[in-house]
Design brief:
It is an enzyme of class 2 (transferase). This protein has 514 residues and is an alpha/beta fold. It has a domain at 104-243 and 498-512: 2-Layer Sandwich (Nucleotidyltransferase, domain 5), CATH 3.30.420.40. The protein has 19 helices and 15 strands. The strands form 4 sheets. Strands 3-13-12-11-14-15 form a 6-stranded mixed sheet, sandwiched between helices. A 5-stranded mixed sheet has the order 6-5-4-7-10. It has a two-stranded antiparallel sheet with strand order 1-2. The longest helix has 33 residues, at 410-442. The protein is globular, with a radius of gyration of 25 Å. The chain starts with a helix and ends with a helix. Residues 1-41 have low confidence and may be disordered. The protein binds beta-D-glucopyranose (BGC). Beta-D-glucopyranose binds next to helix 8 and strand 12. Beta-D-glucopyranose (BGC) is lined by residues 113, 189-191, 206-207, 241-243, 265, 267, 269-271, 300, 302, 333.
């Protein structure tokens, strides 16, 4: 938009007594921005300085990391002792790790934060697998609604299509003597209080989901009922969290000499599941505990520090929480995971555009920046593009910003990158708090098992696609006193298809128990 239009519009607003209009005038909805000539030539911060000042708000120092690790370990122990704690520490009822020799074909449904996948997974018995899969974005209409079975019916229809395409005979023989019944492992990525390997009640929704009438319900039964209504030849035999799936899948594929300790997800949401000594889970009485004395525990670490003793907070974090479907919950996740990072950046950029003292986007009116005005208008893939831009003129960043917000100068791109980097770095360092705390709590570095290496399976868009996220997380691990140089013995391994393969492995465990 030409400057002339702002000038005349501004004059209309302010009348003859208005100060001289110069390059500093920008349109801002109904408000014109005016800079006095003194501010222009003298003390005004450059855009880069403004960005650096805001970036500082997202710093999370080494001291902060260490303090938060102590708090995290404390809250992990509380969760092992009592129900309903900040870190829930939910037993998965899986009491052994795969050896890599597992065999068989199982169906899996992976209901994630953004997509649903249905797979048929064949475990080959040598740490490898083959997989056929169908994937679809979850329609937003089913994420927040008042129909408790809507989402599950939609999933069942999707599975029906999958069977039609890949196993048509199973549908024609259903209900006859020749019927082939599939065992299905269900990966469900929200906090569930498991009652057994094949049942569990939803504790709360996260990642923007909010379907009435499901909290407290058995998630397995809801999916099984939806299959039964469509007469699908499927038995839901196992229910797992996606982090449990990642841990199982990594343990299945890892070399036999290595002990996998943790499965973690850094994607739309964040969470981790680890191998705990059953004797330490004092809140669990009279339950199935297994022969090996271990239990995979789903921490639900996204809700760490609900009391806000250790987490950093900016005004942008507060805005996100207040406008979320679960205010006061998942405060850790809201500072780490992909669902929220782009929104934090959007809020910062919006505040810059609205600040009369800041020169950004050459005065283009905010009314023209549709994505910037829309809640959730920027996502973390936008930040990944900026972070990966090594061009001297920031041309890649400028193209991305142009696509998502509007024409950006070098200075605009530079400022947005500085802030985006700070938000991503804080997320990775917070991620290190969780990973580090599990390492400290389990003492796995000290035990020297598995050639002295600590093996961690990870999945999710941030750890996989955000440049430097894993490196930043590892560097912060080295700052934790109990880890230090031991950081070099920690292997963080991306475990693709963890949820699907993990669900198949869980169905395999369930089959052995029958
Ligand atoms: C959920 C967890 C899940 C994580 C990663 C969180 O929002 O509460 O159950 O494991 O996202 O998908």
């Amino acid at each position: 938009m030409a400057l002339g239009r702002y000038v005349s519009w501004f004059r209309r607003l302010c009348g003859p007594t208005a100060p001289t209009v110069d390059e500093g005038v920008k349109s801002e909805g109904k408000l014109a921005k005016v800079f006095s000539s003194e501010e222009d030539c003298g003390s005004r911060e450059s855009l880069k300085e403004v960005a650096e000042r805001i970036a500082k708000e997202f710093e999370f120092s080494d001291v902060d990391v260490r303090r938060a690790v102590d708090g995290f370990v404390k809250q992990m122990n509380e969760g092992l002792r009592s129900h309903g704690c900040t870190i829930e520490q939910l037993p998965s009822f899986i009491t052994e790790l795969p050896t890599g020799f597992e065999k068989g074909t199982y169906l899996a449904v992976d209901l994630g934060g953004t997509n649903v996948r249905v797979c048929s997974v064949t475990l080959e018995g040598d740490g490898t697998f083959s997989l056929i899969q169908g994937k679809s974005a979850i329609p937003t209409v089913w994420m927040t609604c008042d129909n408790p079975s809507g989402l599950f019916n939609w999933v069942a229809n999707f599975v029906h299509e999958f069977l039609e395409q890949n196993y048509p005979d199973s549908l024609t023989t259903a209900g006859t003597e020749d019927a082939q019944i599939f065992s299905l492992g269900f990966t469900f990525s929200h906090a569930v209080h498991q009652l057994d390997i094949n049942s569990g009640n939803l504790i709360r929704w996260s990642k923007g989901f909010n379907i009435d009438g499901v909290v407290g319900q058995d998630i397995c039964a809801l999916l099984q009922n939806a299959f039964t209504e469509l007469a699908l030849p499927i038995l839901v035999t196992a229910l797992i969290n996606d982090t449990v799936g990642t841990l199982l899948a990594r343990a299945y594929a890892s070399p036999k000499s290595v002990h996998t300790v943790l499965g973690a997800v850094f994607g739309t949401g964040t969470n981790g599941a680890y191998v705990e000594q059953t004797s330490k889970i004092s809140k669990m009485t009279g339950s199935r505990t297994g022969e090996k004395g271990i239990m995979i525990v789903n921490t639900e670490w996204g809700n760490f520090d609900q009391g806000m003793e250790y987490l950093p907070t900016t005004s942008y974090d507060k805005t996100i929480d207040a406008g979320s479907v679960n205010p006061g919950f998942e405060m850790f996740e809201k500072r780490i995971s992909g669902m929220y990072l782009g929104e934090i950046l959007r809020l910062v950029i919006l505040s810059l555009v609205q600040d009369p003292k800041v020169d950004i986007f050459d005065g283009v009116a905010i009314s023209e920046m549709l994505k910037l005005r829309a809640k959730w208008g920027l996502d973390s893939s936008f930040m990944s593009h900026l972070e990966g831009d090594n061009s001297p003129d920031l041309s890649l960043s400028r193209t991305q910003i142009e696509k998502c917000i509007g024409m950006a100068s070098f200075q605009d791109a530079q400022a947005i990158r500085i802030i985006s980097h700070a938000i991503g770095r804080r997320s990775a360092r917070l991620g290190a708090v969780a990973v580090g705390a599990v390492i400290v709590h389990t003492g796995c570095l000290k035990r020297g098992e598995g050639e002295g290496r600590v093996d961690i399976g990870v999945d999710g868009s941030l750890i996989e696609l955000y440049p430097g996220f894993a490196a930043e997380l590892k560097a912060a691990l080295g700052e934790i006193e109990e880890i230090g140089e031991g950081e070099e013995r920690i292997d963080i391994v991306v475990t693709k298809d963890g949820s699907g393969v993990g669900a198949a492995l869980a169905a395999h465990v369930a089959a052995k128990r029958l």
